[in-house]
């Protein structure tokens, strides 16, 4: 007996013989009574919001395989972009920045022997002057 439906009475409906045979075979395949099979089918259609006349398209397994293939394709494209575009561009940018770095110029030591305390000033030949504390004036 079907659990929860023991006290309900049976009703009859008229179904064509070929459909009844197919339905009974399906009921045996899923190991349910005919009433429970029909109830499961109705609940499935209601829960998923589909009608029996709609085509669900390819099976889930084929969809999963298709999605995996496309994801692998996207990964391959991204790796190719990384190898052919990103890494060479980064290497070129690094080489440009290495060449563009200003060369360190030697500091010239200058002494003022004007009578007062000896002050030592550091200066670069072309750019920034430094004070006695060693900080650049801006």
UniProtKB/TrEMBL annotation:
InterPro entries tied to this protein: BfmA-like_N
Name assigned to this protein: BfmA/BtgA family mobilization protein
């Amino acid at each position: 007996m079907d659990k929860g439906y023991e006290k309900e009475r049976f009703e009859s409906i008229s179904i064509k013989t070929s459909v009844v045979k197919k339905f009974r075979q399906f009921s045996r395949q899923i190991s349910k009574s005919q009433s429970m099979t029909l109830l499961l089918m109705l609940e499935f259609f209601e829960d998923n919001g589909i009608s029996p006349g709609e085509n669900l398209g390819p099976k889930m397994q084929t969809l999963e395989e298709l999605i995996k293939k496309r994801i692998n394709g996207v990964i391959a494209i991204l790796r190719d972009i990384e190898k052919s575009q990103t890494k060479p561009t980064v290497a070129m940018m690094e080489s440009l920045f290495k060449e563009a770095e200003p060369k360190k110029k030697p500091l010239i030591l200058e002494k003022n022997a004007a009578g007062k305390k000896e002050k030592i000033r550091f200066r670069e030949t072309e750019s920034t002057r430094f004070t006695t504390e060693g900080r650049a004036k801006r």
